[in-house]
Amino acid sequence: MPLTDRQIKAAKPKEKPYKLGDSGGLFLLVNANGSKLWRLKYRHLGKEKTLSFGRYPDLTLQKARLARDAARAQIAENLDPGDVKKAEQAEAREKTEQTFAALTADYLQKLEKEGRAPSTLKKNTWLLDMAIADFGTSPVKEIKAPLILKTLRKIEDRGTLETANRLRSLIGKVMRYGMACGWIDADPTPALRGALIRPPKKNRAAITDPQEFGGLLRALDDFGGQKATQIGLRLLALPYPRPGELRLATWAEFDFDTKIWSIPAERMKMRRAHRVPLPDIALEELQQLHRTSGHHDLILPSYRSWKTPMSNNTFNAALRRMGYTKDEMTAHGFRATFSTIANESGKWNPDAIERALAHVEGNDIRRAYDRSEHWDERVRMADWWAKTCHSLKVQR
User: Fold this and answer.
1) pLDDT recorded at residue 370
2) Residue 392 in contact with residue 338, Cβ under 8 Å?
3) In this predicted structure, what is the pLDDT of residue 363?
4) Residue 153 falls in the annotated catalytic set
5) Which listed residue (39, 44, 296, 332) is catalytic?
6) Average pLDDT per consecutive 10 residues, the chain (396 residues; last block may be shorter)
7) CA dihedral of 230, 233, 239, 242, whole degrees rounded to 10
8) Which of 202, 223, 211, 216 has the alpha carbon at shortest distance from 334?
9) 269 catalytic, yes or no?
10) How much is the pLDDT for 369?
């Protein structure tokens, strides 16, 4: 006979667990500790199985019967209600565990293990925190293009168009990582292409006229600021590194005997180790610098602490003090100066110039076959450039 609420309430625990049957395979398991649990006995594909529904009185008799009927309807459709329940529980766990914030944390951890530069990790974290603030708790599977666009529009409205476009690209990388991990089936960000305002393309300001560049070199000789800043600017001009590569350089990277600066891959933009031939005049500048900072690791430590590098604003601030506006010259512009004058000279292989600048060939096939560093030519070119800089400086 079917159970009644009165019977269930009256059921007392015994020394061993016992069952009170209802109907259709539903029964109440009364444990020795007094707990009363709903169970369903059923058969699927010839095997007898048991399904748990919940605890009485949290789950009333009426609700237990509804759960039984739903399970039996699944059996009628040749489904195993136990498997259905496991799938529902897994989906519920995904919603609470596989969020955008959790996926982002995994992605950033992967980048850290790959040896990405701390500055890169910091920038990526800063960008992704904007997205996490809006939909970090959302399950990754539920994040669609309109939700992402809403966040990107907020950034656009602040006038930071480049930031919005960078964040779109970075969210795409996180989502594709999620695809690889099996969290999602598709990346929603391709649908956003064309949806954002494109920031106007701005090249870093650089002096490319040889005579004007000679004037800059003369102005540098008269620079009245810190000696280390003056030498740093000269080193930007001579071996034409990226400003960040120079600011973070350590003395261990320089070999004065072979005249080579070896920059490790983790500090290079394209994550490829890079060797720089040093002309004699660059070595002289480094030797001057070594007399003041040679007992530290960094060649250009901060004025406040020798453990931290010179500020990334120092070089540009020095150029402003010399009278050059941000639209005339930047610290990064020394690379464009070298590239322009070297290419226009017609003396050097363009590939050697690109390799000297640590640019990576964009064509995959060509890059696979052209692994030459053009080293001998780059050594000659470095000496030529040092002599060219001196010649331009003394011309009036």
Assistant:
1) 44
2) no
3) 44
4) no
5) 332
6) 89 93 93 93 90 92 94 91 82 75 94 82 92 93 95 92 91 94 93 86 80 93 91 93 92 94 84 90 94 88 86 91 91 93 93 87 43 83 95 85
7) 140
8) 216
9) yes
10) 38
Q: Cα(100)–Cα(142) distance, rounded to whole angstroms?
A: 10
Q: Is 332 tagged catalytic?
A: yes
Phi, psi of 37, deg, nearest 5: -120, 135
Strands 26-30 and 36-44: antiparallel
Nearest to 289 by CA among 352, 345, 246: 246
User: At 163, which helix (H) or strand (E)?
Assistant: helix 161-180
Active-site residue, from 269, 271, 290, 374: 269
Selected catalytic residue, list 41, 63, 359, 380? 359
- Give, in degrees to the nearest 5, the angle at Cα 17 between 13 and 22: 90
Show the tokens assigned to 202: 């701005």
Catalytic residue (one of 113, 202, 291, 369)? 369
* Distance, CA of 122 to CA of 133 (rounded, Å): 16
**What burial class does residue 284 get, using C-beta atoms within 10 Å of its C-beta: 0-12 exposed, 13-18 middle, 19+ buried?**
middle
Q: What one-character-per-residue DSSP string does 87-116 give?
A: HHHHHHHHHHHSBHHHHHHHHHHHHHHTT-
Q: What is the pTM of this model?
A: 0.54
Which one from 335, 355, 378, 393 is the annotated catalytic residue? 335
- Is 369 an annotated catalytic residue? yes
Q: Where are the beta strands (DSSP E) in the chain?
A: 18-21, 26-30, 36-44, 47-56, 254-255, 260-263, 274-277
Distances 213 to 137, 219, 237, 319, 381 between C-alpha atoms, Å:
53, 10, 10, 13, 18
Q: What is the pLDDT of residue 201?
A: 61
202 as an active site residue: the answer is: no
